[in-house]
Every structure is written in structure tokens, then in C-alpha cells.
Design goal:
The chain has 340 residues and is α/β, with parallel strands linked by helices. It is built from 13 helices and twelve strands. It folds into three domains: 53 residues, 434 Repressor (Amino-terminal Domain); 130 residues, Rossmann fold (3-Layer(aba) Sandwich); 132 residues, Response regulator (Rossmann fold, 3-Layer(aba) Sandwich), CATH 3.40.50. It starts with a helix and ends in an 11-residue tail after the last strand. 42% of the residues are buried.
Length: 340
């Protein structure tokens, strides 16, 4: 089954441009439109087949279940998925998911049936929620997992290397002269929390330095309020850290607030580094050094997997893990260790 991505590659344009040729041809230059149409013809690409399927009652959109739409991570991923769907000429149906509710199974079943959803995207922590994945298999639904803790033989997954990213942060702080580094961890049940903490320890081991004492680790649960408590704990130590790496940007922003309240200069007295490159990372002062997750690249991979599912599901190795790169974004919140 030829996909919109195959057409874009042959035509030498973006998938978004192909989508515009299909849906808004008047907005595309004639030369580009002809180039795309020639690629469609060469690949025997027939977008009308999907339209006919919808008229006959087929599946109309990709489903997304959100536990916390207000969180920086989920909101950024939601936006990236919307962009990827728009580029591919697809639509997204979103539902709030609260697993603690006694009728969650019935709600998911209605979401699949009334929303005409067969393909879903599961973000953390739902990607590790076994009862939900079992229900999806029973219902014949398909899912792509984002950053699951372990490989699931039933579903493909798209991940980034949290361990390597955390290690890169610590090595960067080493290069600035910091060795007494505090770490605010995420939720203990999240695989990303475990991997990021492991990356911290690996960086010390690789440098041949003693591992950080337990007093330099504080739990933040990926929450701003908990981040404030964790920052107060770390900065109240008899010998406080000269840098703090928080497991996400919300808790890093909490560190910055506590530091300002204590009269500390960032980065003069304390360097602060976050993770995710959520909107808050560039909204606080000073702006946060952080790891930028490749949201859009991951989202495009997810949509591509959904688009090519029918073709590849019969091929060995389809249920695989796909690794996407990250980037260390250096901003004003990090600097050399104070000589005072």
C-alpha cells in the first residue's frame, strides 16, 4: 500500500505539500502540483480509496488518550501529532482518560465505537497500562506506544534514549566544572524516571567520580509543586549542589522559583537543567537549558506506522522499537561553577 510519505519522497516535497495537492490544489504552485501528481501516478497512489472507505463506514481518525492534557509533555506531543496528522491528510480524535474511574473500560469501548477509532497512540503512562492494552487487543484495535518501559510484542513503539540524554546533561555540567549535582527524579513508576536517573549515575561512573550520595536525589514526580519541595530539600543541605538536573521542565522551573526566592543567582550561584523542552522552558527567566525531545519527528513516525500498518503487519519485524534522536538545548540557566 503506497503512502503519502512515499509520494512526498518521490516528488521531493513534504508530506504536507502532498496533502495540499490532494485537498487544496489551488494553493500549490502549478509546477509543484504537477510534480506531485506525476509521483502519484508513478506509484499508483489512490487517495480516493480512503474516502470511499469512510463513506462506507470505515475508520475515520487516529485516537489519542490523554491523562493530563495540561502537562508540558502531553501538550507538546498533542500539538506535534496534530501537525503530523494534518501533513498526512488525517484526523485525530482525543479523549480524556482517567484509569481510576470504575467505568473506564466502557468509556474506552464507546470511544472506539462511536469515534470510529481503530488506531490509537498511547503516551506514558498509558503505554505501560496492561489492562488497557489487553482491552485494545480484545477489541481488535491497533496502537503505537510512545516511550514504553519495556518492549511489547503486540505493538510497535517510538522512543528516545532517555538514559543517553541524561548522561549528556551531566557530562555537559561536568564540562562547566560542576561535580556536586543534584537530581530531581520523576515519578517512580515511569520508565523515563528510572532511565534518566541511570544516565546520571553512568556519567559519574564514566568520569571515574564517586556516585552522588542519596541526599542529592529528591523526588519530584514530574509535578511543579513536588518540584518546589524537592528543590527546598536540596538547597537546604549543609553543602547544597552547584547544579540541579530536574527530570522535566516543570520541576526545573520549580527549582528556579525556589532559587530566586532564596536570593540565588541563576546560573551564577546555581545551574538548572530540565528535560523535554516544554513551553515552560522558554517562558521562565532565565530560560532553561534542557533536552529537546523530537516531538514532531516522533509524531511523524507514529502517523507513518499507522499509514503503513496494513502493508507491513504481515511482514516480520513490524512490531519493533523505533529510536529517534534528541538534542541538548543550551540556554541561560546553566553556566560555569562559581569560584566563590
Amino acid at each position: 500500500m503506497t503512502t503519502i510519505y512515499d509520494v512526498s519522497k518521490l516528488a521531493g516535497v513534504s508530506a504536507k505539500t502532498v496533502s495540499r495537492v490532494l485537498n487544496e490544489p489551488d494553493r500549490v504552485k502549478a509546477a509543484t502540483r504537477e510534480q506531485v501528481q506525476a509521483a502519484m501516478k508513478a506509484l499508483d497512489y489512490s487517495p480516493n480509496a480512503s474516502a470511499r472507505q469512510l463513506r462506507l463506514g470505515g475508520f475515520s481518525s487516529i485516537g489519542l488518550l490523554l491523562e493530563d492534557p495540561a502537562s508540558g509533555y502531553q501538550s507538546r506531543f498533542h500539538q506535534a501529532l496534530l501537525t503530523a496528522c494534518m501533513e498526512a491528510g488525517k484526523y485525530m480524535t482525543v479523549e480524556l482518560f482517567e484509569g481510576v474511574m470504575p467505568d473506564w473500560k466502557a468509556r474506552v469501548d464507546r470511544f472506539l465505537t462511536e469515534g470510529r477509532v481503530r488506531d490509537l497512540i498511547l503516551l506514558p503512562t498509558l503505554c505501560d497500562f496492561a489492562p488497557l492494552k489487553e482491552l485494545l487487543r480484545e477489541r481488535g484495535a491497533r496502537a503505537v506506544l510512545i516511550a514504553p518501559s519495556v518492549h511489547d510484542p503486540h505493538f510497535p513503539s517510538v522512543v528516545m534514549d532517555d538514559r543517553a540524554a541524561a548522561r549528556q546533561i551531566i557530562e555537559y555540567l561536568f564540562s562547566l566544572g560542576h561535580t556536586r549535582i543534584g537530581h530531581i527524579t520523576g515519578h517512580p513508576d515511569h520508565s523515563a524516571s528510572i532511565l534518566r536517573r541511570s544516565g546520571v549515575i553512568e556519567a559519574y561512573d564514566a568520569r571515574g567520580l564517586p556516585r552522588p550520595k542519596s541526599e542529592l536525589f529528591a523526588s519530584g514526580d514530574f509535578m511543579f509543586k513536588k518540584g518546589i519541595e524537592a528543590a527546598e530539600t536540596l538547597l537546604s543541605l549543609p553543602e547544597p549542589p552547584t547544579a540541579i538536573f530536574a527530570a522535566n521542565d516543570e520541576t526545573a522551573a520549580a527549582v528556579a522559583m525556589v532559587a530566586h526566592r532564596r536570593g540565588l543567582s541563576i546560573p551564577g550561584d546555581l545551574s538548572v537543567v530540565g528535560f523535554d523542552d516544554a513551553p515552560i522552558a522558554s517562558a521562565v527567566w532565565p530560560q532553561l537549558t534542557t533536552i529537546a525531545q523530537p516531538y514532531l519527528e516522533m509524531a511523524r513516525k507514529v502517523v507513518h506506522l499507522v499509514d503503513a500498518w496494513d502493508q507491513q503487519s504481515t511482514q516480520s519485524g513490524f512490531v519493533s522499537t523505533y529510536l529517534t534522536p534528541h538534542e541538548l538545548v543550551i540556554r541561560e540557566s546553566s553556566g560555569p561553577v562559581s569560584k566563590a
